[in-house]
Write a structure and sequence with these properties.
By secondary structure, the chain is mainly β. Helices cover 5% and strands 54% of the residues. It contains one helix and nine strands. Strands 1, 2, 3, 4, 5, 6, 7, 8 and 9 form a nine-stranded antiparallel beta sheet that branches. The longest helix has 8 residues. The radius of gyration is 19 Å and the shape is elongated.
Length: 170
């Protein structure tokens, strides 16, 4: 189990109200922590800038479709957690490998989000990762140049600020 937490700076650079299209540049920086048993361990940091385009599908703003492109970079600690092979674990066909920090890969994704109630949402989507040119392609643990995933999540907002930024109509 690896938990990644951290801040994200988000810039909205397109807000096309008649068609409900919005575009964002998101700059997340996350710290990674693993739990081998009950002892948490630092695993490094991940930086994954992305461009996300969102479209509200209905006027009530309950349905949203989004598309993204993201590139991921990580510290050597993080890369060693996934791609490093310590000398004591080297065997024929799996040589020792010291992973370096750098580029992980690029992802393309699509997500559908539906608000169920004021504090609950369901999110589903898919992502395709392209890892050609990844810093640790030579690791014996590196498997594929292309990866894919699908997901479903239920989100619960356990806290929300009562103070809001005022909306200004032009």
């Amino acid at each position: 189990f690896v938990l990644e937490v951290g801040p994200e700076l988000s810039f909205q650079f397109i807000d096309h109200e008649p068609s409900n299209w919005r575009a964002f540049l998101n700059l997340p920086l996350r710290a990674a922590i693993s739990w081998p048993g009950f002892d948490p361990r630092w695993q490094g940091v991940v930086f994954a800038p992305e461009i996300r385009i969102r479209k509200r599908l209905r006027e009530d703003r309950k349905d949203e479709l989004s598309y993204l492109v993201s590139a991921s970079f990580a510290s050597s600690d993080y890369m060693n957690y996934f791609y490093g092979v310590q000398p004591e674990f080297a065997v024929p066909g799996r040589a020792a490998f010291d992973a370096k920090g750098g580029y992980i890969g690029t992802e393309l994704g699509m997500t559908y989000r539906r608000q169920l109630a004021s504090r609950y949402e369901v999110v589903t989507g898919m992502r395709i990762g392209f890892h050609q040119g990844a810093k640790n392609r030579n690791s014996p643990l590196f498997q594929d140049d292309i990866s894919g995933s699908i997901f479903v999540a239920v989100l619960w907002k356990f806290w929300e600020s009562k103070r809001r930024v005022p909306v200004v109509d032009d």
